[in-house]
Structures are given as C-alpha cells and as structure tokens.
C-alpha cells in the first residue's frame, strides 16, 4: 500500500514539473534601433574668433570737371598730391567770360534807364529834341522832293536825246558811238531817278517815325509798354546772373579734402563741360571688404567692433566697425559681403592694401535653433508637437514637447522646449518609443 502511494506521488510530481516547464515564459531578445542625432546650439551659447582676408578701398571718390567749356590755363596738382577742401585745382581762360558779363551789364543798365524814363514820362528837353528831329525829317523830305523833280527832268531829257539820236542814226546822220553814249546816259538818269524815289520814300518813313515818337512822348508810355520793358529788364538781369556764374565756373574748386589719384588732361587743352580733370579720393576713412559664409553672416551686427591688421604694418593693429552687411550672396562663392570702416587719420592705409580681419562671431540673442521638419511629431489626439531626445548616459530616448516657430524650406524654428547641448534624434524618429534603448549612427 505504501509502495502504491509512492508511485502515485512520483507520477503526479512528474506531470506537475512538465506543466510548469511548458508554462515558463520564453525570454525575447531586445531590439536596439539605430538613430541619428543633432546637437542643439542655442543663441549666445558659443563665441569664436575668426580671421578673414580683405582689401582696403576708399569710401568716397569724385570725378572733378568744369561746368563750362574753355581753354585750360592752370592745372595745379599732381597725382598723389594731398589737397584741401575749397582750394583751387584748375582754371580756364576767363577773357571771353568777362567780356560777356560786361556786355550784359551794359545792356541791363540801358534797359533799366529806359524803363525809368518810361515810368517818369518824357522831359521838356526830350520833347524839344524829338520836335527838332521831326523838323529835320520834314526838311529832308522837301529837299528830296526837289531832287526827285530834278531827276525826273533829267530822265525825260535823256530819253528825248536818245530818241532823237536813234532817228538820226537811222538816217545815217549820227554815229554808232553817239547812239551808245545816249543810251548809257538815259540808263544812268533812269537809275538816278529811282534812287531819288527811294530816298523820298525813306524821308517819308523818317517823318512818320518822328511823328509817332513825338506823339508817344507827349502821351507818355503805355502800361503794356512798361510791362514789356520790365520783362526785358528781368530777362537781362537773369542773363547777367548766369554769365557771372559761368565766369565763376571757370575755376575748379576742390569739393573735399583728399588725394589726387589721377590726372586726366594737360595744361592749355581745349576742355569741354563735364570732361574729367582729376580723380579725387578721400582716404581719411577707408573700408575693408571681407566675405562671410551663410553659417556666420547671422552672427554679426552693424556697428560691431573689429580688430584689423595690415600686411604693410604688421606691428600695428587698427580698430574698425562693421558699416554695411550685404543681403545678397555671391553666385559663385555663396558668401555675403561685409564692409568694415576704419579711421585712417595719418593716411597711411592706401586702397588695395591687404588686411587681416579678426572678427568675433557670436549668435544673436534673438535667434532660435532650426531643426529638420521631419524630426517633429504631432500627437493626433492632443495636437501637441514633440521631439525625441537621446540620453547618452542611459542610451535611451525621451519625449520632449516643443513649441515651433517659423518655417523655412524643410526646416522649422523651435522657440521653446530645447536646451543647449540637447541631442535631438533626426533619423529613425517613427520607430522608437519612450525609454527605448538606441544606438547612434556614425555622423
């Protein structure tokens, strides 16, 4: 009986062990997915000193020329010579200009005197002069009328002589020379008669002019005549002002202090208005141009101080400030132009000199990190946006809610939720979950 009980115990133990073995869970192998990360760099997180090569150039240049044409009589400066503002650089021959000014001034004074007389009216002595002129014209007409009468008688006599000699010549009672002389005499008398008629007509016109002048003098100048004379006086005054300005323009004055970089003409040449005489540059301040890549252009600001060294002066360091920042990249180098203004009080720095620019590039306080758009995931229920961050200590990932800003192509700006130095997962984001272990791909 005891043996039977032992046998049943062994059999039941065997089946119980077998069942427990079958129900033991099978341990699964953990999958570690590969991911790619991007290190977050927040604004103001790093500051570095970069060196760039550039060339010095002048900031201001002017082509100096005359506003009038003429013969160049004075050319004072040479290339490389330093000049001061308002100094005389060149001059043209002034003789014709001075003559023109004097002539116009005389015309203006005459017009002003005539206008004053028109406003005042004719004086008694002026009336007597005009009356005397009229009497002279009348006397001249009477004399001319007598001359016309005498010329008419002479013409008729010459015609009669010619007819008489023509008849005699036909009867062979006069010679051919007598006929020719009478013909010439008749033609001369015809001419003298016509001339006397012309003189008589002119004498009549002189009387008419004198009568009108006397009538006008007695009546005084009309209002419209005074207005016309006033307009003529103003016009002459403007011409005088313009002529004086042209005379002044025969002298070429230096517009600002600087250095003559080029002389384009020689003395005693005929110069036309607008023809370049000098090239003048101002190097009291110079500009150094450098080129920055797009990765650094947003880290500088206008007015930022800059340290500059020139190869010609290795022991001296100049201070400058960023004056202009280009907004268009060069098509070939894909860099942006940056211009730095440097004081050059001793004029030692010349255009074309090579400069070494030491530029501090720091992110601006208002910039935010930009990450790939596909690294951001949106919760379908709450509509919240989040990203995956990698923890190098545990090798796992954690979910981080973020607030997005502006978009640019396939990237998005993160304005809240990321810290400096965070390792953002940018590849494999859709195959991971909270706390999952991952391995980093080689960058």
Structural class call reads alpha+beta
H/E topology pattern: HEEEEEHHHHEEEEHEEEEEEEEEEEE
Distance between the termini: 77 Å
Unreliable segments of 5+ consecutive residues:
1-24
Question: How much helix, percentage-wise, in residues?
Answer: 25-40%
Q: What is the helix tally? A: 6
GO cellular component, one term: efflux pump complex
Signal peptide: 1-18
Family: Belongs to the membrane fusion protein (MFP) (TC 8.A.1) family.
Domain CusB-like beta-barrel: 288-361
Chain-wise SSE layout:
Elements: H1 2-23, E1 33-39, E2 48-65, E3 70-75, E4 82-83, E5 88-92, H2 95-120, H3 124-170, H4 176-219, H5 223-248, E6 251-253, E7 258-263, E8 270-271, E9 276-293, H6 294-297, E10 305-310, E11 313-325, E12 335-343, E13 354-361, E14 370-372, E15 377-378, E16 385-391, E17 396-401, E18 403-408, E19 411-416, E20 423-427, E21 438-440
Parallel strand pairs: 1-21
Antiparallel strand pairs: 1-20, 2-9, 2-13, 3-5, 3-8, 4-7, 5-6, 7-9, 9-12, 10-11, 10-13, 11-12, 14-19, 15-16, 16-17, 16-20, 18-19
Helix pairs in contact: 2-5, 3-4
Family: Belongs to the membrane fusion protein (MFP) (TC 8.A.1) family.
Domain Multidrug resistance protein MdtA-like C-terminal permuted SH3: 371-430
GO molecular function, one term: efflux transmembrane transporter activity
Task: Give an account of the 3D structure.
- It holds the Pfam family Beta-barrel_RND_2.
- GO terms for molecular function: efflux transmembrane transporter activity.
- This protein has 443 residues and is α+β, with helices and mostly antiparallel strands.
- The protein has four domains: 84 residues, conserved putative lor/sdh protein from methanococcus maripaludis s2 fold (Beta Barrel), CATH 2.40.420; 91 residues, Efflux pump adaptor protein, beta barrel domain (Elongation Factor Tu (Ef-tu), domain 3), CATH 2.40.30; 61 residues, Beta Barrel (OB fold (Dihydrolipoamide Acetyltransferase, E2P)), CATH 2.40.50.100; 99 residues.
- It is built from six helices and 21 strands.
- The strands form four sheets. Strands 1, 15, 16, 17, 20 and 21 form a six-stranded mixed beta sheet that branches. Strands 2-9-12-11-10-13 form a six-stranded antiparallel beta barrel.
- β10 and β11 form a beta hairpin.
- α2 runs antiparallel to α5 and α3 runs antiparallel to α4.
- The protein is elongated, with a radius of gyration of 55 Å.
- The N terminus is likely disordered.
């Amino acid at each position: 009986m005891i043996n039977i009980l032992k046998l049943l115990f062994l059999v039941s133990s065997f089946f119980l062990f077998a069942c427990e073995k079958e129900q033991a869970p099978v341990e699964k192998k953990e999958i570690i997915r590969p991911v790619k990360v991007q290190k977050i760099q927040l604004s103001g997180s790093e500051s570095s000193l970069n060196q760039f090569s550039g060339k010095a150039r002048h900031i201001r240049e002017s082509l100096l020329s005359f506003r009038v044409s003429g013969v160049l009589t004075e050319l004072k400066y040479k290339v490389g010579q330093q000049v001061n503002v308002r100094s005389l650089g060149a001059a043209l021959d002034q003789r014709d200009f001075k003559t023109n000014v004097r002539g116009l001034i005389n015309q203006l004074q005459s017009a002003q005197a005539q206008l004053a007389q028109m406003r005042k009216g004719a004086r008694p002595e002026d009336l007597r002069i005009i009356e005397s002129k009229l009497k002279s014209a009348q006397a001249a007409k009477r004399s001319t009328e007598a001359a016309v009468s005498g010329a008419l008688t002479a013409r008729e006599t010459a015609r009669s002589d010619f007819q008489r000699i023509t008849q005699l010549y036909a009867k062979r009672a006069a010679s051919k020379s007598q006929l020719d002389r009478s013909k010439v005499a008749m033609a001369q008398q015809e001419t003298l008669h016509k001339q006397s008629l012309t003189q008589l007509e002119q004498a009549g016109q002189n009387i008419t002019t004198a009568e009108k002048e006397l009538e006008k003098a007695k009546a005084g100048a009309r209002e419209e005549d005074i207005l016309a004379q006033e307009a003529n006086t103003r016009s002459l005054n403007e011409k005088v002002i313009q002529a004086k300005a042209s005379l002044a323009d025969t002298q070429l004055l230096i517009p600002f202090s600087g250095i003559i970089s080029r002389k384009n003409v020689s003395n005693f040449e005929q110069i036309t208005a607008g023809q370049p005489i000098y090239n003048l540059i101002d190097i009291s301040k110079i500009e150094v141009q450098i080129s920055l890549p797009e990765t650094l252009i947003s880290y500088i600001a206008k007015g930022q101080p800059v340290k500059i060294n020139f190869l010609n002066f290795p022991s001296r360091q100049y201070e400058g400030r960023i004056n202009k920042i280009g907004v268009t990249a060069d098509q070939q180098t894909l860099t942006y132009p940056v211009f730095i203004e440097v004081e050059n009080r001793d004029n030692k720095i010349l255009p074309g000199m090579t400069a070494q620019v030491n530029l501090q590039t720091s992110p601006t306080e208002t910039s935010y990190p930009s990450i790939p758009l596909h690294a951001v995931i949106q919760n379908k229920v709450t509509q919240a946006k989040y990203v995956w961050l990698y923890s190098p200590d545990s090798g796992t990932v954690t979910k981080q809610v973020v607030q997005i800003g502006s978009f640019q192509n396939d990237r998005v700006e993160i304005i809240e939720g990321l810290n400096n130095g965070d390792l953002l997962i940018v590849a494999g984001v859709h195959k991971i979950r909270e706390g999952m272990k991952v391995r980093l791909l080689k960058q």
